[in-house]
Design brief:
heterodimer; A: mainly alpha; 4 helices; B: mainly alpha
């Protein structure tokens, strides 16, 4: 095992722990992306370039993009604030929905 | 033979009282006090409802507030401690078991039997593929890869069934989605468009290279298809749906997937039929190292690449918009 591999494995551990510790979902996805990128370099050093290409394309590329879209779909990415809070407008719309259902 | 009781008779039985109590209409006491649900919560106007919603939210907040609820705080701490302990125990177990694995390259390990020996010794001769991995997954184990392509196809169909919007309901949410898109993804981003103009052709050509060279260099259908799918997604993000819908719609997806999977199935069915009956398949293997060599592997690679690229792109479109 070379020094490069040891450094990469330590990076991998740091990434894996910080994904589970971080609170922000957007940061978690970005860390996961870097995890995949480091993993693909490790595949190259382990002499399996097939897996490295697939890991870089699927793990770092497509999966992260799908995660981003999912976050957008559930309105977890907010531009003004980090998290979405229950504001007055939300309560109003909910109440109107309730009235509509009763009517 | 049981006969249905009349309402009057039924109202005197114990079961009637029990079910009314269960529905919350009465107290189950000898002298009944009828609780009418409409009287209990008068609905006067919208502002009153808003006040009630706020009160309810305050109640919920106080119940789930860790400072006022001791039980909840205890469980939060317990949950964290147990989660950390579980992770440590799991990691320790895995590491302990990994230490029992035989070292890499050991001739006595159970995986080094006659199967990999044959792959390495006769792989090029039998499949014609310089890249032994592609020779394995698309010749010796082509049936597995066919299953994987079908899994991708079924996954796309599931996503289509679950996330596709009904055309009638689409009208209502159209303005909301447009507003959302405007906030999160500005339509004409000059930086993104300029970068995409440079990058998308390079990504596409690289993906096509990875697919076509699958039997010569690292890569193959799956990775090349994923690269092309990523390029399509980048193009879509930069230039919007109007540009992509000119060449990729639901119909395109349907026909590409259908033709790719059918071609794969027919090609492999032919070679399996010949192989099982000890017939000569008459498929030339060519000289190893040339681009037109290794028999069916090139065709199968193209089929898998098409299916994967379409699947990736369709996943993205379904998550973004819910419709082609």
């Amino acid at each position: 095992m070379t020094t490069l591999q040891i450094i990469l494995l330590i990076f991998l551990l740091v990434c894996a722990i910080s994904v589970s510790v971080t609170k922000d979902l957007l940061n978690a996805i970005l860390i996961y992306m870097s995890f995949s990128l480091i993993m693909s370099i490790i595949w190259v050093t382990l002499q399996s370039p097939d897996l490295a290409i697939t890991e870089a394309a699927v793990g770092a590329g497509v999966t992260s993009v799908l995660f981003f879209v999912t976050l957008k779909k559930i309105h977890a990415i907010n531009i003004e604030k980090g998290t979405k809070e229950l504001s007055d407008t939300d309560i109003n719309t909910e109440a109107e929905d309730g009235l509509d259902e009763q009517a | 033979m049981s006969r249905r009781k009349t309402d009057e008779e039924y109202s005197k039985t114990r079961a009637y009282k029990f079910f009314r109590w269960l529905k919350g209409q009465t107290d189950y006491t000898p002298d009944e006090t009828v609780m009418d649900m409409d009287l209990m919560i008068p609905i006067s106007d919208a502002t009153d409802t808003v006040e009630r919603m706020k009160d309810r939210q305050l109640n919920i907040d106080s119940v789930y507030d860790e400072n006022s609820n001791k039980m909840l705080r205890f469980f939060a701490v317990l949950y964290r401690v147990v989660a950390v302990m579980f992770c440590i125990v799991l990691a320790a177990l895995l590491v302990y078991n990994v230490s029992y694995l035989p070292p890499v390259g050991d001739p006595d390990r159970p995986t080094s039997n006659e199967v990999p020996a044959r792959y390495i010794e006769k792989g090029i001769e039998e499949t014609g593929a310089v890249n032994i991995v592609t020779g394995m997954i698309l010749d010796y184990r082509a049936f597995d890869t066919f299953g994987e392509s079908n899994v991708l196809f079924v996954a796309t169909i599931t996503v289509l069934v679950l996330l596709r919007l009904n055309k009638k309901n689409e009208r209502n949410s159209e303005s909301d989605d447009a507003a959302d898109d405007h906030i999160y993804e500005p339509g004409d981003d000059l930086i993104l468009q300029t970068v995409a103009k440079f990058l998308v052709p390079i990504i596409m050509v690289f993906g096509i290279y990875v697919i076509l060279n699958g039997h010569l260099s690292p890569g193959g259908g799956f990775s090349g298809g994923a690269i092309i799918g990523a390029g399509l997604i980048l193009y879509l993000n930069a230039f919007g749906f109007e540009k992509t819908e000119r060449f990729f719609t639901e119909k395109t997806y349907k026909w590409i997937s259908f033709f790719a999977l059918t071609t794969y199935c027919l090609c492999k069915a032919y070679s399996f039929f010949c192989g099982a009956n000890h017939l000569d398949s008459h498929i030339p293997l060519g000289t190893p190292g040339a681009i037109l060599s290794s028999g069916l592997i090139l065709i199968l690679n193209i089929c898998v690449g098409l299916v994967v690229a379409c699947t990736m792109y369709t996943f993205y479109v379904m998550f973004r918009k819910g419709d082609f």
